[in-house]
Each structure stands twice: as structure tokens, then as C-alpha cells.
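Loading example: each entry is read as four labelled lines plus one structure line.
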Amino acid sequence: MTKKVTNSVFATHAPHLIKDAVKLIASYPKMPITVDCVIFGFEESELKVLLIRSDLEMYKGFWSLLGDNVKDNEELDTAAYRILKERTGMNDVYLDQVRAFSHPKRHPGGRVITLAYCSLLNIQHHELKIYANELHWHSFSSIKEMAFDHKEILDTCHTWLQKRIQEHPLGFNLLPDKFSLRELQNLYEAILGVSLDRRNFRKKFASMDLLIDVGEMEEDVPHRPGKLYKFNFDKYEKNKRKWIGIDF
Amino acid sequence: MTKKVTNSVFATHAPHLIKDAVKLIASYPKMPITVDCVIFGFEESELKVLLIRSDLEMYKGFWSLLGDNVKDNEELDTAAYRILKERTGMNDVYLDQVRAFSHPKRHPGGRVITLAYCSLLNIQHHELKIYANELHWHSFSSIKEMAFDHKEILDTCHTWLQKRIQEHPLGFNLLPDKFSLRELQNLYEAILGVSLDRRNFRKKFASMDLLIDVGEMEEDVPHRPGKLYKFNFDKYEKNKRKWIGIDF
DNA sequence: GCAAAAGTGTTGTCCTTACACCCATGC
DNA sequence: GCATGGGTGTAAGGACAACACTTTTGC
């Protein structure tokens, strides 16, 4: 097998040490990087996603994720938090990197690599104060088409969320501090797209012993009010499950 | 709340549509992107990782992951496969994106964002033919210090692998086509860092019914030879588990 | 015959699932 | 008093964990 000659700095058989790291880096192709945030919320028993209108004329009328370019010397996580803050005025939200999208033609303006971030936020706690580009919540299931490859990114993040929510108590970020078991179950059903047995669901959470009964009841409901709970984050942090088991 | 002025194209209250997408992209900061491959193997009941010597004088003597810059108009996955091929001569390997590392000071030559990829390959099947930069296999557990932030990347990929191998039959990529149940168990024990009950382990795989008895036995072992199996990829693909369950 | 690993079953416990009735509240 | 969802228990089945002895082979 012969070694292909490339423009890589590493593609040498008899390497010599490189003294000037700055020069090395300068020889690499450079490209713009963006971060796109998929922001999920939950309201009226529906999974929602926060979108804006695309700025680009060629995507006029299409919805887009909240994105922006990454600045020089800015960490990706920092960029994601910045974008959230700039676009929504919020900063105390859950946020996680999902993955990079790098198709060379994904942006009509040229090659741009984007990092998808997934955020979860509580619609009740965080009132939107910035409405540029018609920023608002959409029912997740109603989104069919989007600008760029944003539909693919959205779907990837949704799949990611479905998996994460079963392994980590992320869902509580989407609920008010105090919530009823029904709201919690509705959340899981909305995200997973399944219906769950109410008694088994309650038993499951009761046996985990991670919900604190706040001693209050629902109000203004047209039926028997349920108890309100909050999530015991401290206890969870102390007893995180270390899962060993083969299952595929 | 006031809106911070930024250099973002989106940071306008009354957006006007942008006609020239190319010009837009041109206004973004550009930065070099690299891909770093963590390549795991398994031999002599040990998890191994493929490393080279760093080319940089300031990391002289340190070990480094197999990495290279991403080319213009090259997809990240393509770059990862290219690097594997260039460095090892191999291309039929399992490979998956793990995540981006973006600390501004992670490379001494300046800002470089890297995407970590994790590969699994069978050491017996794939003989190394390219030995530039002292490319060779290391015992994973012996690696303490590395060039750049590569130890952090390596550890992240190891954690990723521990999780993946329990949910997907990735481990078979690290074994020969035909393997004994002991080899399979050694693999799981090496990656997870636990010891497993032999009878329960065998029962588990027997009940999954995804191993095909090839009708051959181990040879040249100094004890009773075990049966050899191969993995039934077709059957797995048809019956992939759709997991629903809350566990944290 | 000894060392080393192969191969094999049972039991108890726990978790999951399926399923039905009464209760509290608002209207 | 009726509609709506809150709240509860049990039984069966399946998965997992713990555990020991006999068998085959090489030396």
C-alpha cells in the first residue's frame, strides 16, 4: 500500500519536529463555525420549539433555529449560551452539545460547519422579552420544513432528547418548579410519543424517591386537584445511577 | 432588558432580508478545524489505543491522537475516514463522531476547534503497514499524559465507548470474525472495568440469540477449547431494540 | 493427575406490566 | 349528580444476581 501525498502536516514518513506551532496552524484551511440552538419547551401538554424567521432572502418565510457565528477565541458552549441570552434574554437554562453538521452545501453562502446545541427551558418561568424575527414557540409536531438543514438538526436533537430524558432527569427543566404527576407524565408522553400507564408511572417515580411533596395542591383545575411536587436535585446528584447492563 | 450590540448578523431588532448569503458568510470569523481519531483495539484481554508521537517540538516525546485538519469542502466524517486511511492504511472500520473540543488555548499554535471521532478496529484483521511517527498500539490504562488536550479527548471517548457498548453491539468490531465467549466477556470486562459473572454473561448472550455457532473450536489453547461464534449482524439490524423506560 | 477454563441450572428477588375501583372537586 | 382526573393495590411474568459442580483438554 502506498502512502498518498496530501497537504497534511502529518503526511511525512520521516517527520521532523515542528518548532513553530503558529505557522503550522496558519497553514490549515479556515472556515466559519456557527452554533445552532434547538430550544425545547413544554406547554399545554405539547412539546414546543423556539424558532425565528430566517434572515436570508432565499429562505424567506422559512423558520430557522437560533444560531450565530462563533467568535474568535470563544468556546462553543459560551457561544451557545450567548446566543440564547441575546435572542431570548434568558441564561439559566439547560444546554448540551449534540453534534456537528458539516455538509459542504448545507449553507447557500458557502461552507459553514455548525454545532447543534439542545436547550430545555421552562416556558412559564422564562417570559420572552425579545421578539426579533418573529421569535416564538411552535408546536414541535407542526414543523415540517425549515431553512438550511435545520429540520434535520431539529430531528436529531429530538431523538437525542428522547434518549436523554429516559436516562437523566432533564425533563424537570421543562416544568415549573412545582408540578403535578400528571404534568410530568404528559411531558414524557409528549416527548416519547407514547402513552404510559398512569399507575405504573406514578409508582415508578414514587419508588425513585426523588420527588418532594411540597404540601400544596393544584389550583384552578376543573377537577380534583393533584398534589404538587418538586424534584430533589441534590439527592439525585448524590445517587446518580451507574448503569451496567448489556441491552441491544 | 437591553439588547447587547454584537457583530452578529442576527442582532437587529428590525431585520431586513439578506440577499447575498456569500457576503454574509464572508463576514464570519474563520478558524481551522481538525479531526482527532481515538482508535480502540483489543488484544490479549486488554483495551488498546493507537497513538503517534506528536510532531510539535513543544510536545516532543508526548503521545498524540491521529489527527489532521479538515479540508475545504470536506465533510467531517470524510475527514475522519481519510485520516484513518492515511495513517493506518485501513478503511473498513467503525467510526462515530463523539464531540467537539473548543477551548481557545487547547492548541499552542492558536485557536483550533477539533472534532473527536471514536473508531473501533480489529487488531488481528488490520495489520498496520504505516509506521510514521512511531504509530503503534498502547494499553489504554497505561496512558497518563498526552500532547494538547488529547488525554481529555481520550477519556471522553472511553466514557462514550463504555456507554455505547452496552446499548449497541459495537464490541464485535474489536474482535476477530470468530471468537469465543470468553474473549467476548474479556472485552466487556476490559472496557467497562468490571468483572462479570461468567454464567450470567453467557446466558445473556444465549438469550439474545444473536450469536451463530460456527461449528469450530478454539485451537492452541492450553486448556479445554471453547466454541467459536460469529455475530449475526443481519438479525440484529432487523430487530433493533426500541427502548422505552425511565431509569436514572 | 493436575491445571485451566468450558459448560451448565436453580432459586430468590426485583422490576415491569396489566388491569379496576373509589375519591375529591368543580360545575 | 355528573364529569374529570386523583389516588391506590395486586398478581403474573420476566429479567437479573448469586451461586458450585462436572467436563474437556494440554501438559
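Strands of chain A lie at 30-43, 46-53, 63-64, 66-69, 94-101, 113-120, 136-139, 211-217, 227-231.
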